[in-house]
Predict the 3D structure of the following.
Amino acid sequence: MQKRYRVTLTAAERQELQTSVSTGTAAARKLVRARILLLADQAEGGSAKADAAIVEALGCGRATVERVRPQFVEDGLEQTLRGCSKSPKPLGCQHPSDSQIQVGCYRDTNDGASN
């Protein structure tokens, strides 16, 4: 099956990732993403492994591998290694109904009840 998102690293990107992985001084999440990209690389000289083989080799989740491929193609190397997309999702309550639901969770259930 042809992959929709093909990871093709340049020689400079591949060297940067290999250096990062070999020194091992970056955050664990960044190193896992770097290893995924190195194993998924379909450029000449790359490993071009399937998702299942990457999951088995690294011991990470399949969903992680499936998220890294499109993120690299759409957002680039730096964004992928940081683990954030160019268009961040808003956080917090967005609708009054959300805050009402949260308040309802903290409401005392013994209103007026005597023990």
